[in-house]
Amino acid sequence: MGTTHDADTAFIKALADLLKDSDLTEIEVSRRLGGDDKLEVRVSRQTIQQVVAAPTAAPAAAPMAAPAAAPAAPGAAAEVSSDPAQHPGAVTSPMVGTVYLQAEPGSPAFVSVGDTVSEGQTLLIIEAMKTMNQIPSPRAGKVTRIVVGDSEPVEFGAPLVVIE
């Protein structure tokens, strides 16, 4: 059983190396291993234009948020806060999976709104293919919003946390 895991890990690493060395942004492979066993792997590189559907949702939310925020803040600030995917401090999901905000049930959350985080600090975990993947902070700053809830499914490129 350990040999299969090692072979799977080597296969995934080879796919990641291929992705790094090529102009590809994503590789998806499905292998039948015998019987009902199969291995499904999706390796992708994060790009700047990740969320395509988000701009269509933003105009619907912006008119409602802009009038309430207009007296206190400029209209641009209201648009940024209404769509976390468009926020320059948004940390997006590098994979499809299930989000966990703490290491195990009952333990404290990795981060909370208002916390100051350092680059590389774990923000949350995404479980994908029964593997727990720690998602590190790409930069130092203050957590101003946690967009996802605990045990929620998340898609590739979806906003997770906003750090300013």
From TrEMBL:
Residues 59-91 are annotated as: Disordered. Keywords: Biotin, Fatty acid biosynthesis, Fatty acid metabolism, Lipid biosynthesis, Lipid metabolism. Residues 59-78 have a biased composition (Low complexity). PROSITE patterns: BIOTIN, BIOTINYL_LIPOYL. Residues 88-164 form the Lipoyl-binding domain. GO terms for molecular function: acetyl-CoA carboxylase activity. It holds the Pfam family Biotin_lipoyl. GO terms for cellular component: acetyl-CoA carboxylase complex. The keyword Lipid biosynthesis applies. One of its GO terms (biological process) is fatty acid biosynthetic process. Pathway: Lipid metabolism; fatty acid biosynthesis. The keyword Lipid biosynthesis applies. This protein is a component of the acetyl coenzyme A carboxylase complex; first, biotin carboxylase catalyzes the carboxylation of the carrier protein and then the transcarboxylase transfers the carboxyl group to form malonyl-CoA. PANTHER family: OXALOACETATE DECARBOXYLASE ALPHA CHAIN. This is Biotin carboxyl carrier protein of acetyl-CoA carboxylase. The lineage of its organism: Bacteria, Pseudomonadati, Pseudomonadota, Alphaproteobacteria, Rhodobacterales.
